[in-house]
Model the fold of this input.
Amino acid sequence: MTETVTVRVPAKVNVQLAVGGARPDGFHDLANVFLAVGLYDEVTVTAADRLSVTCSGPDADQVPLDATNLAARAAIELGRRYGVDPHVHIHIAKDIPVAGGMAGGSADGAGALLACDTLWGTNASREELLDICAELGSDVPFSLVGGAALGLGRGERLRALDVGGTFHWVFAMAGRGLSTPAVFREFDRMNEGVRIPEPVASQELLDALAKGDAAALAAAVSNDLQPAALSLFPELAETLAAGRAAGALVALVSGSGPTTAFLARDPESAAKVAEALSATGTCRTVRTASGAVPGATVLGH
Ligand code: C5P
Done:
């Protein structure tokens, strides 16, 4: 019997994040265009006599190891649906920044779900896995499917998108995290009394993705959460300006932030932008990564 399964799961950047008004359930309707990029967490599950979680990597001390961890919740929920005791040890080798707006926690949820499904041989259908993902969080279904997708509803109703080329990105991780609910609350505060239009995907943006045209994508990206993230974390403006000055085609906050994302023309330009951002001393770490890449993938076991 298989005793250990490892799943690799990518981070995401939102190339469009259109946000509607707050719904009665507190969530916001979104038109959320996700692109999976090559920064990965690896989630390993091993049969054990109880559920436990460990984490390694530079941000490991910020990761909760109790049942609030999305990886633990994924194991519990799959086990509940199939009558399996979720007695696994989950190890997360974390490379995606924590509380960074790159879906790191969501990646671990999707990764643990696929790993447990493989370990236990539960063979849940894609639909059932996606249903569990949506229960875990708005961004978790995308972590499972990867590539590029438009997320509607609270972001969990996905439609796969064509991507016609590789996009080269630089990511600057900030010195502290931002809480997603706090950024949405700030969005609500800043838009109080404003009639917010229904969020829709930009056709220019979808065309740019389909063509693999970085300049056209740069002209079309948008993030409605950016003003709220900047309001809570004003220093990010300096990082965004430094990346633009170093030749990035566009600079934006990734999701709810505070990671900032810079689209580059090609890998050489990305390396230059990364070097310039590192030199500013305003960011904790600077990484380059390309996308689109596949979603959660079982590695050899
Ligand atoms: O779904 P998830 O647990 O990732 O959402 C975290 C928080 O972000 C929610 O509790 C909510 O405050 C906010 N959110 C939202 N609208 C969305 C997605 C998330 O308001 N579509």
In short: The chain has a mean pLDDT of 96. The first helix runs from residue 70 to 82. The pocket of cytidine-5'-monophosphate is lined by residues 26-28, 30, 137-139, 154-155, 180-181, 184 (CB under 6 Å).
